[in-house]
Amino acid sequence: MNNNIVYALYDDDDILLTSVKKMKEKKLNVKEVYTPFPVHGLDKVLELKETRMAITAFIYGCIGLTFGSVLIYYIMISGEYKSWPMNIGGKPNFTFFKNLPSFVPVLFELTVMFAGHLMSLTYFYRCKLFPGSQETSPDPRTTDDKFLVEIEHENFKEVEKFLKTTGAIEIKKKDDK
Amino acid sequence: MFQLNKKLHFTSISMIVIGLLSLVIGFMSDAHSTWTNLLFNNYFFLGISLFAVVFVAIQYVAEAGWSTVFKRVPEAMMAFLPYAGIIMLFIVIAAVMHWNHIYHWLEPGIMDPNEPNYDKIIAGKEPYLNAPFFLIRSIVYVIIWIYCARKLRQLSIKGDLEGDIGERSFFKGLRVSGWFLVFFAVTSCTAAWDWIMSIDTHWFSTLFGWYIFSEWATIGFTTILLIALFLQKTGHLPDLNDSHIHDLGKFIFAFSIVWTYMWFSQFMLIWYANIPEEVTYFMQRIEQSNYSFLFWFSMVINFVVPLIMLMSRDAKRNKTILVIVSTVILIGHWINSYLLFAPGTLFEHGHLGLIEVGVFLGFIGLFIQIVSRTLSKTSVEIKSHPYLDESKHLHT
What we know:
The structure holds two protein chains of two kinds. By secondary structure, chain A is α+β, with helices and mostly antiparallel strands.
């Protein structure tokens, strides 16, 4: 079914960026771009949706802060149902609010830890990265120093001619499997 | 060419008049609190103009390109440094001559065991805190800061006239900046000790210099942003794009948090340890009813407002939000500067009133006048600079 896919390989990020711009102008269907490092401005050219990672980070931070507050409340503050009241270092009393300055480092660290760890797990989930996962890039050289553009085409000859003018170093059809 | 519009010109001149009137009324009614008033307002604007020099120097040393298009803004702010420096030296000389009583350790006889007001702890600090050394230090800081600021400004203008990419002046400026930053790293700390921390002579805090620097950085970035936005609105900075504003917003956000970090580190250790000689500093600020509200209020608005309002990417690119947050932060840090000085000199008599606000307005007016006059001397747009092209194409 997908035998009308063509791979164009580039060896420079600037050339890649201008080529993708030209492809977009020619209304070619650019399916995906594989790069060894983030290329500045490529997301805008490809009209990618803005990441929602920042929102998840905020939510995870809030979860961490809540978890930290509950944890520290049950550890440090006395009460009928709480386990073990502790009064260390001359803190004024057994209320949460008045002892807050000494809890701030704990709350801060838990917020950062939750945000950081859950964000990397989210990242792995979104990129489908797990032990034993298969790589999605069609060419292993994109993990080294080459840039690959995946284009859907109707007429291979025409597209090949056009891609050659943009400075692609290698153009090939996707192998039928 | 930049020209201050008539309305703003008139407003700033009337602000200066209000400031001068406030000073006259203040000195006639309550000279002691007016000295403190002048000192803390001057400290605030000294911080803004001095941080502008630091900002320019850091851009040179880091060979940073992003800030080049609005380089004239911090350079114009640097022009206020001589004024703030001279007022600072005037206050210091007045303190040494006993015209004012801001610095308790300058009182005659306080370091003499035979006098009734002998203070053993203050006498122990005599090798550092003595009038001649204090005076010499203050003069050295101010003169070298002003010299570096003038030199950087001259080299920047020379680079613009040099044509091509202005490479020769750039490398000269890099050398000046390097020396300035080394000097500033030490003197920002010692100046904070001399002019601010020595008011509460018995008390000391080892991170006080960084605490003051983080405050200077916050108000400095805020002022750079406000002036840059104003110039963009009046059409003098066509190359300033959203990415520059976004980056300045990031710095305001980051330094607000650095300031809070310093504030909290200083507070928490003293609060936790609860040692009598250390807690006096916070007792004066928290237990006394005339400062306790301002103390918590300034901490909250300097931290919570930028944290909540500037957290998202869109907010840092929204000019309305940025202007609101910047104004709130400037007011918050102004209140915080008051709390650095007043509790140690005025004790329970200090009040943040109309005279303080009047002097603040006077300083704002003078600042607007000096900055706009400097901006109108040269073109606001940079013509030749090694990183000009990079800066024009900044996108984040």
